[in-house]
Amino acid sequence: MCVPDPKSDQNLLINLRQGDIKAFDELYHRYAKKSMAFALKFFKDQSTAEEAVQEIFIRIWERRKELDESKSFKCYLFQAVKFYMFNFIRDRKDSCAYEEVSEATFRRENTVEEQLHYEELEAAANLLIDRLPQVQQQVFRLNKLEGLTTQEIADRMNLSKRTIEHHIYLATKTVKSELLHRISISAMIFVGVFF
After folding, report:
1. Is the dihedral of CA 173, 193, 189, 37 positive or negative?
2. What architecture does CATH give domain 1-107?
3. Does the pLDDT value for residue 53 go beyond 80?
4. CA–CA separation, 115 and 121 (whole Å)
5. What is the residue-averaged pLDDT of the chain?
6. Which of 17, 26, 122, 182 is least enclosed, having the fewest CB within 10 Å?
7. Which residues pair with 43 in a beta bridge?
8. For residue 151, what are the contacts with CB-CB under 8 A and spacing of at least 6?
9. What pLDDT score was predicted for residue 158?
10. Global pTM?
11. Helices and strands in the chain, H and E counts
């Protein structure tokens, strides 16, 4: 019988919804740096990117009861960064200098069609992950979807860190190359979320 991992994003979200500050801290520790790197793709100014990430995590805490633990927290978080960026531009459109926003910002639109395309691509990625060899699949999910480090995965699976790194490399290469065959420019952001 498979025992659920108490540190999985899903279980942390369940605990967060009940007001568990330790679960919140764990999710913050797991995703703050990744969110910051992602935000810097939109905001050239480091302090604006930091403010975006802080604000998003504050909102996550305030709206914790509305979170859906059946959905990927990582995808939710990166979507939140994107929406924060759109709102930031909208709210500052009269005073926002052209130089303050990165070029990528102007190439993106928030549309229903884009959201559907994103969801289709996410479903395609999940199908591709399901087709990976069992060990690669498990390692990929633990690393890319649950945010575990290579050392944490190695300890959990009783394999060497080098072996885990090799599995991550092979799985990422396979999934990424397949996705790039299906991807449009408007969905390039998705590849940035997973890879």
Report:
1. negative
2. Orthogonal Bundle (1.10)
3. yes
4. 10
5. 76
6. 182
7. 101
8. 161
9. 92
10. 0.47
11. 10, 0
